[in-house]
Amino acid sequence: MFWSKIWLFIVAAAAAIAVTVALLLPRPAERARALEERDRLVVACDVVNILLRDAARVQVEVAGVFARTPAIVTAVEQAGAADAITEERAKAARQVAGDTISAVAGAKPDFAVLIDRRGRVVTRAGIDEDAFGDTMAGRFLVDDALAGLLRDDLWYVGGRLYRVAASPVVHRDAPAAYVGAVVIGSAISKQLAEDVVRPLGGKISFFAEGRSVVSSTAEVIDHDLLTAYEPLATSRGDLEGDCKARPPITAHAGNLEYTALVARLPGEARAADAFFGVYLERPRSLGLMGTLDAVRKDDMSFAHFPWVPVGIGFLVALAIGLALMIIEADRPVRRLQADAVALATTGAERLPEERHGGRYGSIARSVNIRVDKLAREVRAARRNLDQLLGPGGEDGNLGALDLDAPARLPEAPPKPPPPAEFKFASTAPPTLDLSGPPRAARPTPAPAPASSAGRSAPRGPVMIPPIAMPTPPPRAPEPVAPPPPAALDDDILSMSSSSGSQDGSDEDPYFRSVFNEFVAMKKHCGEPTAGLTYARFADKLRRNRDDLMAKPGCIDVRFSVYVKDGKAALKATPVKDA
Amino acid sequence: MQPRTLVTLALLAVAVPPATVAQAGPVEGKLVPPPQGFPRPPARSRGFLEPIENPHLPVRAPDPWPSMAIVLEGGAAVPPAVPATQVTWDLLGDSFARPLIAVRIGSELKIRNLGRGTPMLTAVGEPALIAKKPINPTGEIVLNVGTEPRVIEIVDETTPHLRGRVLVTAASQLALPDASGKFVFADVPSGAWTLRVFYATGWLDRVDDKLTVEARRLTINPALPPGLTVKAP
User: Fold this and answer.
1) Best of A48, A124, A144 to disrupt the B interface by mutation (most B CBs within 10 Å)?
2) Does any domain span residue A28?
3) What is the pLDDT of residues A449-466, one digit of tens each?
4) Does A365 reside within a domain?
5) What structural domains and CATH numbers belong to chain B?
6) Is the pLDDT of residue A431 over 80?
7) Which of A72, A147, A243, A550 is deepest in the core (most CB within 10 A)?
């Protein structure tokens, strides 16, 4: 899986780099856009100032035209000579002023005020027309006009901002003299605000005394703009530098974002903290998601997007990944799976470890270790069983073969059976009496004389002298049958006929006679004989005989039935070769 | 002699003990503008454009006389316990009738609103001097200037242009020049006096005129300094 992991790392790294690039790429564009926005805003702010300045210039010219109108000069001069301004005089002057306003081409002023040389209002036209005789001298614009200057100003009156302009009224006929002044004005309206920002594509709001006076749009961003104005309020810098003095701010109106600049307004309105804010709606295409939103259909066309290289790259990466997966994972697993199936179904004894490498080889080795362990346990169980049927004890016999006794397996690991010590009961071969019928089981004989020479028959359990049976011809050692189960009694009583002949076709007469004698002994001892079959009994005798005859020097085996602990028992005695 | 002066003298003749009337005399004169003329004050406001001078007549400096007051200080005998007087100061609209008014210490100042607006006047540095409430058209307020000689600046909190000054002085002889600069002290007790001229925000930086008043008319024409510079406070 090594190369697969390496490939996975490469693909993951490439994906991470791609995501990083995708996230980073919009940022330079965002910065460029922010700079462009700032420049646009500064330009918009300067343009607003230029437009307002142009409008002021036009207004000053109109005021000059007013002041040069002969009817107005006369009205103002006559009013200045009177002690008081009468209503008739005011009305007549108002008519003149109204006619003059109507005659203005282009943007007409909203109002006009005629002022005499003492600074008294002769008349008003267009606003508060019933008011006259009060003194407007004292206002900076009026004082400058009465002194002979033409100029503009910005007034904040009654909650509204007014662009005003004034001109001295001069009696030009000799002797020339200042006779008064004319003031004209226009309110800063929504229409003016919209006209100012229309070519800029932005929005504008005018403020005074901490509140919005007029705005070109319904969006409310007053709080942000008022906050941005606070540092400007105490600034001593030139008003014309306000547009470049500070960076734009971000303002919010609902879920919309704006970039805004604020600049102070000149004139008397400065005392009311008059300023304007110009702002542009921030485009939504900033940031990764915004950039994605801005993608158009033709951006995804074949002419603008390298679909073919991207597709080929994707397929190549996919093919490499699949190939590595097949080579490093699929095939080794399939191979191991096939060998495991073969182990389970065929006669294979273990998995071929050399065919599997890496972790799969480790799996195969672990399986083999377990298989080997099971085989050893089976062999050990077989040896234990053999040990139970193994060579006799101290009297030269192989020991009693107690077919009915429960099996006793040695606890120690199975060891090869010790060499048998043959001790024969008689040096002479037993005689085989073929004249009579097989003798029945005899009662327990009296103990044999102890002084029998040459006889090494052991004293011990009561035993019946060996039956004089014709010596069966020497048999070729039969092939060793598979080791019997550990419990002998269980084996004889429950053994199937598979290990032996149940139909009696190959019945051994000697075995049959031993069997009959054993059955008779059991009956004599009062033991049950149900389940005791000849086939199993013979098979047992046969295997035991084969094992003993496999030892060197043993040419035959004699079986004898005796009583042990009140039960019928069977002993096997090897016949040594002379 | 103008009728007004005659009436004043008659009143003084009744009010003042015979010994004082015999030692009093009028002092009159005319303020002499500086040779360079009156300076144009700095612009108080500016719009989008620079001011344009009209092509027909030269731009004139504002008339300084309404912003001046002449005071005679000293004198051999100052009338004891000068009675408190009430001086009326009219507010005509966007300005006072005179931007400067002179009153004696202990006097009352009555401000009448003859304009259309409703200014809210306050004394700069002395917020308790004037009740903080707007003055309706045709309304008036009265305030006591106190006993400390000083200059009180009164402004309108709602407009930047409406402001005036009150010269509170202990001097007993006060005069305001007319539109041509002429002034008259109707009845000045005999003695040595010092003539001082106050302009706008302070005393003019000039050598005060010393004069000795006797029981006859005295004419003096104080010269005003160039640029109408005022002394530092």
Assistant:
1) A144
2) no
3) 444 444 444 444 445 544
4) yes
5) 25-35+64-76+85-228 (2.60.40.420)
6) no
7) A72
Taking contacts as CB-CB distances below 8 angstroms, the residues of chain B near A57 are 48-49
Interface test with A, best of B45, B46, B48, B165 (most A CBs within 10 A): B48
End-to-end CA distance of chain A: 72
Q: Does A149 lie at the interface with B, CB-CB under 8 angstroms? A: yes
> Which residues is B185 bridged to in the sheet?
B27
Domain of A201?
Answer: 35-44+192-293
Whether A12 maps to a domain, the answer reads: no
The predicted pLDDT at position A460 comes to 47
Tell me, yes or no, whether A30 lies in a domain. Answer: no
Query: Residue-wise over A112-134: b if at least 16 C-beta within 10 A, else e?
Result: bbbbbbbbbbbbbbbeeeeebbb
pTM: 0.63
Name B195's Cβ contacts closer than 8 Å, sequence gap at least 6. B27, B70, B71, B72, B208, B209, B210, B211, B220, B222
- Whether the CB of A266 is below 8 Å from some CB of chain B: the reply is yes
Same structural domain, A419 and A544: yes
pLDDT exceeds cutoff 50 at A396: no
Percent of chain A past pLDDT 70, that is, above it, reads 78
Place of tokens 């097949």: A326
Number of domains comprising chain A: 4
End-of-domain residue from the set A255, A271, A293: A293
**Whether residue A213 sits in one domain with residue A86:** no
Do the chains contact at A150 and B52, CB–CB below 8 Å?
yes
The answer, yes or no, to whether ipTM is higher than 0.90 is: no
Span B158-200, pLDDT tens digits? 899 999 999 999 888 999 999 999 999 988 888 889 999 999 9
Same domain, A348 and A381: yes
Distance from CA of A239 to the nearest CA of B (A): 10
Q: Sorting pLDDT into bands at 50, 70 and 90, what band is A440?
A: very low
